Each structure stands twice: as C-alpha cells, then as structure tokens.
Amino acid sequence: KDRLELMILFQPTGAGTYSIGVPIYVDEYSRDRPYTIVKMTGVFYRSSLTCVCSMANFIPVCVDVEIDKVIYIVANHQPEDSKLAVEIVGTKGESIETFFTVIFPNTNNIPYGIDNFVIPVKIKCRSENP
C-alpha cells in the first residue's frame, strides 16, 4: 500500500473555523482532474479572560482598616504562556493605588494549553478617610 502524509501549516488571521480542500492528483488516473479531494476543517479559538464576579463591593470602614476581597479570573485558549496584569484606575482619573492593592495569592502566570485556568486575585482596600 502507498502512504501519503500531508502536513498543513497555516497562521490564521483571527479566531474562527477554517476549511480547506486539498486536491490529490494521480498520474495514472488523470492529469487534468483530481483523483480525490481531502477536506480538512480546524477551529482557532479566541483567547479570553473572564471575571467570575461582576462587582466587588467594599463597605465603608473605619480609618486604617483593611478589607480583602478575592475575585477569580478564568483564562481560556491562551496562544502562549503569559502573565495576568491588573491596573487600578479611579473613575475620575485620580490615583487610588494608595487605597487599593492587588495581590496574586498563587501566581499570575497563565500557562498555554490549559483551558478554564482559574487565577485568584486578592484586592485589598485600605480606608484612610474618616
């Protein structure tokens, strides 16, 4: 028996389903028409980061008291090993980093090839205003 191996390398431009038909020609059969067509379909997934909770509420606290909240980020279809980064932004453009701190209790590394990878993120709120 004859064996035919095909290796298809492609770099998709974006997420989606891609299909291709590869014509196979056999000289003994016909040079003008393909003997058969090998159809291949592949899916390239879009990477995503999802926060399980939609909001983290911090109740008013006394001066110099810290409150911790833990949120969970779920990573899917990461194209390579990466790191989760968090930026704290105030609603009016003011710096609020003195009031909020972000800590990654385990890691901020997101490994390639593991879907539904959960990263806990601890947010500390420190009250300095009476």
Observed structural traits:
two-stranded antiparallel sheet, mainly beta, 0% helix, 130 residues, Ribosome-binding factor A, 39% strand
Explain the overall architecture.
This is Ribosome-binding factor A. With 130 residues, the protein is mostly beta strands. It contains no helices and 8 strands. It has strands spanning 16-24, 36-44, 48-51, 66-76, 82-83, 100-103, 109-110, 117-126. Strands 3-4-8-6 form a 4-stranded antiparallel β-sheet, with no helix packed on it. It is rod-shaped, with a radius of gyration of 26 Å. The model has no long low-confidence stretch (mean pLDDT 82).
Short description:
This protein is mainly β.
Number of helices: 0
Number of strands: 8
Strand content: 35-45%
**Helix proportion:** under 10%
| Sheet with most strands: strand arrangement | 3-4-8-6
> Biggest sheet, open or closed, and with what strands and sense?
4 strands, antiparallel
Distance between the termini: 84 Å
Shape descriptor:
rod-shaped
CA gyration radius, whole angstroms: 26 Å
Indicate how many domains the architecture comprises: 2
**What's the helix-strand series?**
EEEEEEEE
Q: Which runs of at least 5 residues are low in confidence (pLDDT < 50)?
A: none
Secondary-structure-derived class: mainly beta
Mean pLDDT: 82
